[in-house]
Amino acid sequence: MPITEQLLKRYFDNQVTPAEARRVLDWLTTEDGLTYLTHRLDAQLGKADWHAPPNSSAPDPDQLLSAIRKRMEPPLPFIDVPVRQANWYAQPMRWAAVLIGFVLLAASAFWGYQQLYPKDLVYRTAFGKMASLTLPDGSTVTLNGNSHLRYAPRWATHQTREVWMDGEGFFRVTHQRNHERFVVHLPNKLNIEVLGTQFNVMARANRAKVVLNNGKIRLDVGDQAKQKLVMQPGDLFYADVKAKVYYRKHVDAAAQSAWQTGKLTFDGTTLQEVAQMLEDTYGVKVIIADPDLQRQTLSGTIPNQSMQTILDGLATLFDLHITQQSNRIIIQ
């Protein structure tokens, strides 16, 4: 179907469908399309009613083109408009016409891109709140409090399934017919690649902990350790990027992810680790003044319905004196 002047007018007025926007963008990369753009810019340059903002310097055309390229990244092609070498920018008011012409083209192309390729979805949980969501491929994620997950609203066949997470979550990943990869990107260049599997991941600031329940995952620890680690069920991998501490050990995987079932299970967990969990999940400041108490290990199970039930359980099960002053928790 040919490109008509009526379709082009609707395109620049942002009144086209995603399919029509795709057709126009493809045509604009042809010789005829580039000629049309050149004539359109020439027509704008001939207008005398543009007014430059006061005290504004002439824009750098290379910077303008670079900025537009960044907004029109693949799969949409960048449109290189032939520009004559005449000294347009030295002529009064003409540089403003050039600027608006480029912005018009970039805005229209970017609008079509947004319609064809919607923005990623972002899901956040509040302090102390859990949430479960289903990803485009049917995989599910249960997020712990104070966690953040970003992912595309849809994944095409043969496309890598990618999510970006900061916080704590339990993943149940579905295996796809075409074996598409599933990758979880964590802070500090830590990445988890999986097929069909279940695992728990905690990623906060400089620390990360990954526990595999079943299946197999490959952990890419990025530039810090320069290695790829294949994990087996029951493996726990811990990384403190700032302190450059990395280790793997075997644990009770079910206990590590018990938080999503309304309980916390400790198996040789230090009280300092418990304090860090409370700070991360509930946004409080936990103070344990006694270093020996910080290193004391805990084993057992307590309810996880709220921060108060956790504090009550810790006090009862481990004979601790716990007081709360506003947003500060003091353990003695």
TrEMBL record:
Signal peptide: none
Coiled coil: none
Domain FecR protein: 123-217
GO MF entries: sigma factor antagonist activity
Segments crossing the lipid bilayer: 95-113
Keywords: Membrane, Transmembrane, Transmembrane helix
Residues of the Protein FecR C-terminal domain: 263-331
Domain of life the protein comes from: Bacteria
Pfam family, one: FecR_C
PANTHER family, per the entry: PERIPLASMIC SIGNAL SENSOR AND SIGMA FACTOR ACTIVATOR FECR-RELATED, PROTEIN FECR
Protein name: Iron dicitrate transport regulator FecR
Organism: Spirosoma pollinicola
Lineage: Bacteria, Pseudomonadati, Bacteroidota, Cytophagia, Cytophagales
